[in-house]
Amino acid sequence: MRHNKKFNHLGRTNTHREAMLSNMASSLIKHKRIFTTTAKAKALRKFVEPLITKCKEDTTHSRRVVFSTLQDKNAVTELFKEVAQKIGDRPGGYTRIIKTGNRLGDNAAMCFIELVDYNENMLKDTTAKKTTKTRRSRKKSTAAETAAPVAEAPAAEATEEKAAE
């Protein structure tokens, strides 16, 4: 029986799938963002996040385990030096998938997969959201400000007239 043996084979043999995911993981680590199909991105997320978790502990054993999976010395070096420093305090969720629509040729669902702490645009948006904003319209507030001084002016004139008498 094949109970609980459910994952996307991506239409490939086991060795082809492992080689493809290894190459995609190396590219993701080197370039911090890659453009691929949604199915491959979801499979890659399950493949690369345990490797990133493993790189938090910089030991010889963890380097060997990651290298046996990636087979790329430069990617392993970058993963343990740069990526591990940025994600050291993050408990998980190291990647983000942003869907971009369908491919023209075969209508396949396409997306970006990227490392979360490396997207400067998203980081700027989170800092911009921390500023206080109101949901009120600016038109109403400017109308209220212009109406308030007009209401104060007749009252001021009335007090001036009483003072003059």
Automatic annotation (TrEMBL):
Region (Disordered): 128-165
GO molecular function, one term: structural constituent of ribosome
InterPro entries from the UniProt entry: Ribosomal_bL17, Ribosomal_bL17_sf
Keywords: Ribonucleoprotein, Ribosomal protein
Compositionally biased residues, Low complexity: 143-157
Pfam families: Ribosomal_L17
A GO BP annotation: translation
Feature: compositional bias, Basic residues: 130-141
GO cellular component: cytosolic large ribosomal subunit
PANTHER family in the cross-refs: LARGE RIBOSOMAL SUBUNIT PROTEIN BL17M (PTHR14413:SF16), RIBOSOMAL PROTEIN L17 (PTHR14413)
HAMAP family for this protein: Ribosomal_bL17 (MF_01368)
Family: Belongs to the bacterial ribosomal protein bL17 family.
Stored NCBIfam families: L17
Subunit structure: Part of the 50S ribosomal subunit. Contacts protein L32.
Protein name: Large ribosomal subunit protein bL17
Native organism: Parabacteroides goldsteinii dnLKV18
